[in-house]
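## retry 2 of 3
previous attempt timed out at serialization; input unchanged, resubmitting
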Amino acid sequence: IDIFCVDCSNHVFSKALVCPACNASLGQNDDIILTDMNPSEDYKSSVLAGLKPEVILDICSRAIAFYEYQTSQELLYKSMMQKNVEDKYHALKDKFQMITRDLNHVIKSEKEKNTALWKDFEQEKAKYQQALTRLDEKSKQFQRLQTIYEKLKRKTNTSNMQENLLSPPPATTPYRTNNLVEFQQLQDRVPFTIINKVDHLVFLHLLKQLHFIRENAIILRVEQIKEEALTADIIKRYD
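## retry succeeded, writing output
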């Protein structure tokens, strides 16, 4: 025996008289009965009236057996629904725990990376401050060295010029050929009357002095270039 609502019965039995639950044929007259689930008091007092007690008990026992069957089926259905819900719950719980575990691992890893980055940042910041302090010290030291260098350079240039003007030229320096050429060039530029009034030997001596001063000027220029290169190298090292 199976029980269905009125709407489902009309929809199913309009196509074929077959039970949709057990596929039993319902061709007999009493195979399909319409029962009111909320009978009135008059119906209750008259439905079994006039029947023998054994018939009434048989009807009641069958009705109770059907009720137990329906109740057991309902409990089985609910237990199946509960099992399905529990399975879904456990699956979602496991998935949630796995996602939470992965998320916690990612958060922990990111925190460790963040801590390491902050540590590296602080170290680089400290190195930068130390380098900046050393740069300031080196810049001040370079300024002092530059000032001392300029003073020594001016002093050296002045003393060298004075020594070159006061000291005689070296005796081993070959001047004869060049001096004669320079003498001829100077004679072309200086008036002839002035050249004739100057003693030839004295003029050659003065010309040697001028030639010596010019060579020393070239040497001083070479020294100046070396000093500039040395200064540039020092600045490059401090940079």
